[in-house]
Amino acid sequence: MSENQSGEPDGPVTFINVFEIPSAQVEAFVAGWRERARLMSTAPGFRDAELHQAVSAETRFQLVNVAHWESRQAWEAATANPDFQDAIRTISADPQQQVRPNTGLYRTAARVD
Amino acid sequence: MSENQSGEPDGPVTFINVFEIPSAQVEAFVAGWRERARLMSTAPGFRDAELHQAVSAETRFQLVNVAHWESRQAWEAATANPDFQDAIRTISADPQQQVRPNTGLYRTAARVD
Question: How close is the nearest chain A Cα to the Cα of B16, in Å?
Fold first, then answer.
């Protein structure tokens, strides 16, 4: 595995967003997420994104997005896109949506098939 | 899609566990997780499990497990296994590990490839 200028390993990364959101707001949020995901999917290095919805309304985190990118650099370039930034600002400014995102970039620590 | 006796749809489910864990404890935890995942992987209906580790120590959730199962019934049967229950109790009883798991069963709300 090669390294980039910052000394970090290159290679695929997983972006995960764990949402804290009232279960009653999930449906409306999913529609907007789909639009933003379509926008992201046109960016170089995008692989796939899947929004997981909890089966039970009692689950602490009702929505979890798991997205795969070819590299950290590709993900950073895509999130810097002004259209995507506008879309994110629109959600943050909507008083009807009490959504708290918890984002992070991840690598695989262990895997069993 | 068929329904089971409780009226819920059958079909694949994703089990997600969002861990709150001090970053200094991650390495030791991953080793134990690998053992438990191997145990689960022998159960009927198991597809795969991947433990994601945050690239940054500042990320709120340092570890996220995403596992795929053929059905909710298969996942429930596997977690009821006494060997697995013993393994879970061992972590909970270890005063060296301050791990808070947040588990949930999920279905796909939206996906973009």
Answer: 8
State which amino acid sits at residue B88: I
User: Which H helix or E strand runs over A67?
Assistant: strand A63-69
Nearest to B104 among A26, A61, A105 (CB): A61
- Closest CA of chain A from B63, distance in Å: 8
* Listed residue (B17, B47, B23) closest to A16, CA to CA: B17
Long-range contacts of the stretch B2-8 (C-beta < 8 A, 24+): B4/B72, B4/B73, B8/A55, B8/B72
What was the ipTM of the complex prediction?
A: 0.91
The answer to whether A49 contacts B112, with C-beta atoms less than 8 Å apart, is: yes
Considering the entire predicted model, what is its pTM? Answer: 0.92
Quick one: pLDDT band at residue B89, thresholds 50, 70, 90? Answer: confident
For residue range B96-108, list pLDDT tens digits in order: 888 999 999 999 9
